Amino acid sequence: MQFRLEKRLEPSRLMLYATPIAAVLLTMVIGAVIFSLIGYDGIGAVREIFFTPLTNAFKWQDLGVKAAPLIIIGVGLSIAYRANVWNIGAEGQYVMGGLAATWVALSTYGMSGWWILPLMMLAGVIGGAAYAAIPALLKTRLGVNEILTSLMLTYASVQLVYYLVRAPWKDPMGMGFPQTRIFSEAARLPTIIPGTIVHMGVPIAVAVALIAWFVMSRSVFGYQMKVVGAAPHAARYGGFSENKTIWLAMLVSGGLAGMAGMLEVAGPFQRMVPGFPTNYGFTAIIVAFLGRLNPLGVIFAGIVMAITFVGGEVAQTSIGLSSSATGVFQAMMLFFLLAGDILVRYRIKRVAPAAEARA
Amino acid sequence: MTPELIIAIIVTVVGASTPILIAATGELVVEKAGVLNLGVEGMMLVGAIAAFITLFLTGNHYLAIALAAAAGVATSLIFGFLTLSLSANQTATGLALTIFGTGFSALAGQGYSARPVTLLGPLFPAEIATHPVWRVLFGYSALVYFSLAMVIAVWWFLKKTRAGLILRAVGENDLSAHSIGYSVVGVRYAAVAFGGAMAGIAGACFPLLLTPQWAERMTAGRGWIAVALVVFASWKPFRLLAGAYLFGLVMTMELYAKAGGGPLSVIPSELWAALPYLVTIAVLVLISIRRDASSNAPACLGRPFLPSN
Question: Taking the model in full, what pTM does it have?
């Protein structure tokens, strides 16, 4: 029996939303098989990584805290990718946002006042957006590929963290550890549910996604992003500037990554450390795709990805699985999703054996 | 600077450049066929861990290189299947391949991180390379000569052979190549597999040529620099040499600065470590000002191909 692909007249809506779910389910099944084949406890790995974080109520707060930066960065990236602007340096913009917020926190050290956190937030957003402005400038002025520049800047930003915490920003009382001092009370995000680690970043993430969804589906800005991405010629004809779109996409995605950086450094970290670059910016790429480049989808994708992170930590202690297994599961999920894309645009037709013989 | 120091620097530069050169040569062929595989970094990491484990278990350097190439091919075929058979988005699939390679190599390399192996020795017997000048020519391992041979071979293949012409045709105009009866997907699969083999060998250079051990993410973005290098070289094999050795020089300066090399250590070591990436950006900017770079790109680069039926 032969199969043939036939192009659909319209992309299938059903497949568009069914394939991410299928990708997650397939990852669990195939993941369990592959991990068993290479000598791990495959079923145990899938159980710990995908289910324990959901069944164990103590882990729910971790889920929220891990999902928040992924959702915020993922929303920004989904807007950029919609416009066909390939910002893959969100990790660097996240780092620069964190550094800018740290700078404010250290400059206001010992002060108190309600204005410190908003100022840090502003600095974080500006830091991330400014770092994303470099690839935007090079792309619009000189046509330099934004994938490569934004990625190279990520590697550079990590070195900047190492330098700052080793020399100028080092905690004088830190016994030689390369890290800044712990921020003052006023520069730390308060927890919003007493007795947990859930901070302001969690509701902010949901708000960011809802606002982005509203803007993308209801405003000229959202329309412009989508048209430029889907039909650049039509967009030019319609008077939408491609350069302006690149700038907007870069600044929005960079600014949101910077915001996530601020929330992380003021929330879970409370100081700048060499381990601040935690790959949220890269994982958010998977989140954006798994969420179908739709801000509401990104919320769910962010939670799924947070489950694998928390579950990965669980599996590390409970069955001794390396934390890098999480990355393998996440990549598999993206592979299955990309493979499933073909079902959105094509339908599979069975070709009758007779027709096959004639061909 | 003494002559000995200059020679030592040249030898270090050539060593540091070799993995980038090998990976970029592979990626150049892939892109010439019209495919943009951004998973070089991931394939290199899979190659690096395959080479390391083989070397650790057997002690055979050449077997390690062969298995690294095979591992690179296997990884590249994931990309090939998704983008060529299922026409998935190449940018996204390449990124996914890098994320996969990073995770998979870390998983496979669990427990190998503190185990020492031996570097691959020079190809020619030491008697030939006694004089310092001869060391510059004959003092390297086989991987270095392999990288140079492949640059020439790829140039010859693309410019002088019929198969190379077909490959370029597939990259420049896939529909025409298809209509005169060439298998676009077949040619692209072959190119992607070649790129995978080269990336795998490039990854093998890390434990075999540079640091005789395994460390997670030990390729440290060199795969991405290789992708940038192809743009820098305007898809011309011999220009890869200039670019690769420029990066080798920057990385060698970093090594000397870290070792407390006089005037170089005035600049913080972190800036030296960031320099290869900043130089990459600077080079991309310079090349785009010259303007011939983008016009030389294969016309079908990154575009999925499915014959209309």
Answer: 0.89
